[in-house]
């Protein structure tokens, strides 16, 4: 089969002789319709992350059509589906408590299992969710949207009035839109790309955009909130500076949710957290309920993705991957079509 292979550290290439996978018991063979290139895959490629060891087929944001089923009655041949790439054991204490995103036995397609930068991929049947054929492009966004749903749920603020998002990429943009849907009427977004920031404002994802390259972010935050601070700040970047700012921008009692992973070590003063009863949470993945909610949001058209997305044939996948790494694009999200 045709595939884009992460063949070695620093190397992505298109091949046409990858073996077609065979579904194991409880799995379905899915013909991939659309698959997104995720920022975590770009980051892992650049950092030569040991979590993604080549040779490996990447791709975990995808939709497709079921071609074969080897046990399980969740789907049947011919179903069009969105795929949850997070495979959990369902039996550990955390899974039984509903905390499946941090299951110690979890596996991710494109990390521990072959992903969907290919014509075909095998997926546990319990991880497939039926969608209309007309929604297959949007269904490829369900996985990143589920991350955004999870972030806002972790914020535990039923009706946040003031929200800030650090990062205007795919995850930041989706977090901003989900925040709007849960009732945030005033939203500020921060990035270092005027292109991304202009798009976020024009599309209505945010009320104000701040370029951190030439603007005092903390000063802009004070002005935007009239000195009050934000109820929720979402860091979809993960740099030490964005994490620190995410906490400093909070109102007393506010919550910062970190989903970005660019840096590891982060130094933050503790007195401001203690004296203002601020909360800092990490977000990884999503629960089954988050994924199901994201299916509804995407397939019902509640989330806007068309203005910042471009589609490419799978054969161009390696070139598109490299262009995204260099920032040589006029779009935010790239979808590959096998």
- Helical content stands at 25-40%
Terminal CA distance reads: 10 Å
Structural class based on helices, strands and sheet pairing: alpha/beta
| The level-1 CATH class of the largest domain | Alpha Beta
Low-confidence stretches: none
Q: Could you outline the blueprint of secondary structure elements for this entry?
A:
Layout: E1 3-8, E2 11-15, E3 27-36, H1 39-47, E4 56-57, E5 61-70, E6 80-83, E7 86-87, H2 93-96, E8 107-108, E9 120-124, E10 128-130, H3 136-139, H4 142-155, E11 162-166, H5 170-181, E12 186-191, H6 194-202, E13 208-211, H7 217-224, E14 230-235, H8 240-248, E15 250-258, H9 271-275, E16 279-282, H10 288-299, E17 309-313, H11 317-326, E18 333-337
Parallel strand pairs: 11-12, 11-14, 12-13, 14-15, 15-16, 17-18
Antiparallel strand pairs: 1-2, 1-4, 3-5, 3-9, 3-18, 5-6, 6-10, 7-8
């Amino acid at each position: 089969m045709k595939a884009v292979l992460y063949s070695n550290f620093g190397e992505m290439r298109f091949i046409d002789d990858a073996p077609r996978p065979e579904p194991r018991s409880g799995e379905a063979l899915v013909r991939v319709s659309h698959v997104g290139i995720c920022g975590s895959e770009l980051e892992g490629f650049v950092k030569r992350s040991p979590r993604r060891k080549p040779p490996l087929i990447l791709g975990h944001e995808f939709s497709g059509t079921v071609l074969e089923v080897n046990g399980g009655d969740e789907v049947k041949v011919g179903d069009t589906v969105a795929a949850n790439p997070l495979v959990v054991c369902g039996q550990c204490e955390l899974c039984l408590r509903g905390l499946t995103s941090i299951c110690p036995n979890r596996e991710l397609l494109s990390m521990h299992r072959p992903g969907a930068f290919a014509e075909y991929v095998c997926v546990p049947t319990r991880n497939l969710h039926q969608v209309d054929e007309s929604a297959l492009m949007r269904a490829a966004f369900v996985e990143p949207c589920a991350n955004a749903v999870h972030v806002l749920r972790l914020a535990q603020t039923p009706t946040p009035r003031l929200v800030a998002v650090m990062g205007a990429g795919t995850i930041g943009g989706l977090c901003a839109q989900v925040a709007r849907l849960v009732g945030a009427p005033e939203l500020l977004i921060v990035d270092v790309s005027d292109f991304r920031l202009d798009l976020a404002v024009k599309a209505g994802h945010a009320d104000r955009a701040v370029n951190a390259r030439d603007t005092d972010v903390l000063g802009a935050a004070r002005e935007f909130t009239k000195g009050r601070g934000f109820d929720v700040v979402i860091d979809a970047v993960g740099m030490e500076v964005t994490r620190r700012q995410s906490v400093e921008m909070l109102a007393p009692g506010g919550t910062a949710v970190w989903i970005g992973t660019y840096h590891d070590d982060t130094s933050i003063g503790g007195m401001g957290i203690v004296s203002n009863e601020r909360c800092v949470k990490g977000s990884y993945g999503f629960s089954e309920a988050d994924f199901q909610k994201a299916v509804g949001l995407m397939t019902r058209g509640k989330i806007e993705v068309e203005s910042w997305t471009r589609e490419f044939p799978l054969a161009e996948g390696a070139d598109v991957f490299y262009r995204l790494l260099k920032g040589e694009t006029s779009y935010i999200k790239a979808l590959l079509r096998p």
